[in-house]
Amino acid sequence: MTRSPNIALVVTDLDNTLYDWVTFFVASFYRMVETASDLLKVDQEALLDELQEVHKLYHDSEYPFALLETRLIKERFPKLSRLELKQQLDPAFRAFNETRDRTLELYPTVLATLQTLQRSGATIVGHTEASAPNAFFRLRKLGCWQYVSRLYALEHIGEDHPIVEKSMRFHEERDRVHFLRADQRKPNRDILLTICSEYNIPPSRALYIGDSITKDIGMANDAGTCSALAEYGLAFEKSLWNKLVRVTHWTQEDIRRNEEARRSYGNAKPDVVLKNSLAEILSHFEFGPP
Questions:
Q1: What is the total count of domains within the chain?
Q2: Per residue in 64-120, pLDDT tens?
Q3: How many CB atoms sit inside 10 A of residue 222's CB?
Q4: Are 121 and 259 part of one and the same domain?
Q5: In Å, how far from its chain's centre is CA 70?
Q6: Residues 175 and 146 placed together within one structural domain of the fold
Q7: 20-57 confidence digits (pLDDT tens)
Q8: Is 121 exposed, middle or buried (0-12, 13-18, 19+ CB in 10 A)?
Q9: Do 146 and 248 have their domain in common?
């Protein structure tokens, strides 16, 4: 497309748009499961089955400390508190964290692009289907939080971190988080229009960036914003997707909703395709203050 002037609001997806969530999460999760399986001398597939049940219960495939709520763990240690269970399984959680620290990183040019957008006077907003604490943790860990005016993310359902102090930083930043309900998942053009309205910026001066045609691009087009497909975010090893599906929280209702979104938005066309990096938006759009 031709260069579009005066983009004042950039709304960006997070997972597989700013960083490779699929690669980091699958590697970390399965390393945790392998460690727990060895530690407890239990069948790994049985443990995966139980973890999937916990994910379905909370409608979240990235439910922190799901191990603590599996039937197998509760039956093995019936008298331990949540904190004591966490300590019992600490080697497994350490394995997750160590793998995450090796594999979670921003895509090239992301940080520099966010810095450029902020200097231009444009507002940057994060929008994700991840739970708010998980999204906040990654943005802060990767050095992006300072560039995000506000985060729109799903409210956390279930137990808090076993060690309360660990989650305090998130609670201190809650004024910059808009909590979405479970029924406000993508694609939901009303959320995008609400973001534009809250910043008093017309949709025509907003840009939505994401890696999904149906969830991101179709939603953006329907809301009347500009759209950019982060095609580079689809370049993860495809075998990882099957491992993710193995423990997914998806229910039949989720599958039905995804099929409906595919019918509605499956043929959506982005205004631009970012083939290699986020920085490519700088050659397609002009950015500035409202």
A1: 2
A2: 899 999 999 999 999 999 889 999 999 999 999 999 999 999 999 999 999 999 999
A3: 18
A4: yes
A5: 23
A6: yes
A7: 999 999 999 999 999 999 999 999 999 999 999 999 99
A8: exposed
A9: yes
- 52-55: long-range contacts (C-beta < 8 A, 24 or more apart)? 52/246, 52/247, 52/248, 52/249, 55/247, 55/248, 55/249
C-alpha 38/C-alpha 12 separation (Å) is 39
Q: What are phi and psi of 150, to 5 degrees?
A: -155, 150
Q: Which of 69, 103, 137 is the last residue of a domain?
A: 103
The whole model's pTM is what? 0.91
What is the spatial distance between Cα 85 and Cα 49, in angstroms, rounded to a whole number? 19
Instruction: Mark whether 219 and 235 lie in a shared domain.
Output: yes
Q: Examine the domain organization and report whether 172 and 87 are in the same domain.
A: no
Say yes or no: 114 and 180 in one domain.
yes
Tens-digit pLDDT profile for residues 169-179: 666 788 899 99
How confident is the model at residue 2, as a pLDDT? 44
CATH code, domain with 135? 3.40.50.1000
Asked if residue 3 has pLDDT above 90, the reply is no
Dmax of the chain from CA atoms? 65
CA distance 248 to 266: 22
Contact in structure between 226 and 7 (CB atoms under 8 Å): yes
pLDDT band at 5 (very low <50, low <70, confident <90, very high): low
Statement to judge: residues 185 and 75 lie in one domain: no
Residue 46: domain span: 25-103
Residues of 180-192 as b/e, b for ≥16 C-beta within 10 angstroms? beeebbbbbbebb
| Residues 155 and 109 occupy one common structural domain | yes
Euclidean distance between CA atoms 67 and 247, whole angstroms: 12
Confidence band for 163, pLDDT divided at 50, 70 and 90: low
Distance CA 245, CA 20 (A): 16
What proportions of the chain, in percent to the nearest 5, are helix, strand and coil? Answer: 55, 15, 30
